[in-house]
Amino acid sequence: MTTPIGTTAETALRQAMERLLAGRPTLTDGRLTVTNLAREAGLSRASAYRAAAIVQAFRDHIRQRAARNMTPAARQDRIAALEAERAALQR
C-alpha cells in the first residue's frame, strides 16, 4: 500500500499544476510533464505519483487542452491518416 502525501505536498502540487497549466512555471521549462509538475512543487516524482488523483487531473487537463487545440481540418487529416493506416494493415 502506498503512503498518501500530506496536505502541504498536495497543496504544493495543486499550485504547481496551476502554474504549469497557466504557462507560468517558476522552476522548470514549462513542459507539461509529471516530472515538471513534481519539480515545480518541490517534490520527488515518487511523491507526486502518490498523489494519484492530482496526477490524473493534470493528465486530464493536458488531454483536454490537446483536444481543444486540434482544428477540425487537422482532426479530419488525422482521421484520414489513421483510416489509411488501418486499411493498409488489413491487407
UniProtKB/TrEMBL annotation:
Lineage: Bacteria, Pseudomonadati, Pseudomonadota, Alphaproteobacteria, Rhodospirillales
Superkingdom of origin organism: Bacteria
Gene3D superfamilies the record matches: Homeodomain-like (1.10.10.60)
Protein name, UniProt field: TetR family transcriptional regulator
Protein source organism: Roseospira goensis
